[in-house]
Amino acid sequence: MLTEFQTLKIQKLFNFFDADGNKVIEPEDMDIIAEQFTKIFGWKIGDDNDKKFRGALKKYWRKLLMGADTDQDQSVSFEEFKKAYERNLSTKETYEEFVLPFIDQVFPVIDTNQDGVLQPAEFAHLYEGFRNPKDQASKVFAKLDTNLSLIHI
Questions:
Q1: pTM value?
Q2: Distance (Å, rounded) from C-alpha 81 to C-alpha 99?
């Protein structure tokens, strides 16, 4: 059973992946997200980081579709997404199988200087990529970076 806080976080994540806002996640949403990140991070379409990021999104989409699309309509509703995440967050094993691979593929790409930590500027790009106000990123970063050692990936 998810807590209210977990449900809110999952709704926020769903809203991120539902990039066009039509209340379902579809392959086109992955393209929109990739274009947003390419623009925010200043990548060129087809460069190494762009390819890695798009590849991670495609893998995530295939896993999401296989694990969440219960009505097999090639899209994922919030209820399907929530049920899948409830399953995937229920044990360490399912988290490591479903959630962690995406994080492991994406973070090295957004760690632009490859130092293994998110610098404030890198975090600001990530924060903006999740469609949050960029001007709030430094405040959020300061709250997350509680030991002042930057955010380790």
A1: 0.88
A2: 13
Collapsing DSSP states into helix, strand and coil, what is residue 24? strand
Beta bridge partners of 25: 76
Tell me the C-alpha distance between 74 and 135, whole Å: 36
d(CA 24, CA 84): 14
- With contact defined as beta carbons under 8 Å apart, do 108 and 114 qualify? yes
Residues 6+ apart with CB under 8 A from 53: 34, 37, 38, 43, 106, 109
Is residue 137 a contact partner of residue 123, using CB atoms and an 8 Å limit?
yes
Q: Which amino acid is at 42?
A: G
Reported as a single tens digit per residue, the pLDDT across 13-52 is: 999 999 999 999 999 999 999 999 999 999 999 999 999 9
CA 107, 108, 112, 117: dihedral to nearest 10 degrees? 70
